[in-house]
Amino acid sequence: MEMMRVAVVGGGISGLVAAYVLAKDGAEVVLYEKEDSLGGHAKTVTVNGNALDLGFMVFSQVTCPNMMELFETLAVDMELSDMSSFSTTCSGLSSLFAQKKNILNPCFWKIIREITKFKNDASNYVEKIENNADVDRNETLGHFLQLRGYSELFQKAFLIPTCATIWSCSSEVTSFSAYSVLPFLLNHHTFELFNCRQRLIPRWHSQSFITRTKEELQSRGCQIRTNSEIYSVLTNDTGCVVMCKDGSKEVYDGCIIATHAPDALKMLGKQATYDELRILGAFQYANRYAYLLPFNIHSLSFTLKKANKG
């Protein structure tokens, strides 16, 4: 049987994993990445000798079993993350009331009560929908909150900021489908007040995962082409024609596009099907800017200077 030849466009985590699975199953894989390095959002930079991960998300054994299996297969060392959250405390009441003044703060207690209520309401809502196909799954999160009487304080001080930390989205999250938001929050135990479920991270930063995957791909004969931006991906009777921006092109038996939705649509061009246009065209993005704080303490804001001294 002739070996299948497959192109993978995009060298982020999704593209790397797709290429790894294909190569492991015996396919001839060519991986394209427009940047000069692999990893996409999983990027490690070094600042004054310290390695810093940019954009890498934590994961857990419960919610990310496939990633756990992959990391174990690639022998990527993992360790517990050190992360904070309003809604999750690992040291009981001492963590919940880290600011002692909140013990007498009625607004704080109101949020705590609504967190507990929200967890129960969300669990009942998801269970009802999953057991009844006739229930409307298009109800927005905003309507869900309004119907059940949640305060503006709870939404602005807790729920919306929580969603923003997960998806980098704005207050528009309340216009999202409740059924798309609530199961995710529940599955990740976002509303556990005391049962802290610690997440994991790669011990030697995200670059260790990228390096190990790259080594594994190369050992299986995968061609990795960085600085190779794809202009179009077209299909014909013989397979897929992948054309680079420099004008070169190659024919493959198949192609996996592991890029952002707008980029994928641009590559597909006029050949994009109705479903591809409908699904990929529905993705929306929000611009976010990340900044590294200056090393010089005198350049920090007054609030951060005060916190550093205290």
TrEMBL record:
Gene Ontology molecular function: oxidoreductase activity; polyenoic fatty acid isomerase activity
Entry keyword Isomerase: yes
One Pfam family of this chain: Amino_oxidase
Gene3D superfamilies associated with the record: 1.10.405.20, 3.30.70.1990, FAD/NAD(P)-binding domain
Entry's EC annotation: 5.3.3.13
Presence of keyword Transmembrane: no
Domain Amine oxidase: 13-265
Alphabetically ordered keywords of this record: Isomerase
Annotated protein name in UniProt: Polyenoic fatty acid isomerase
Organism, scientific name: Handroanthus impetiginosus
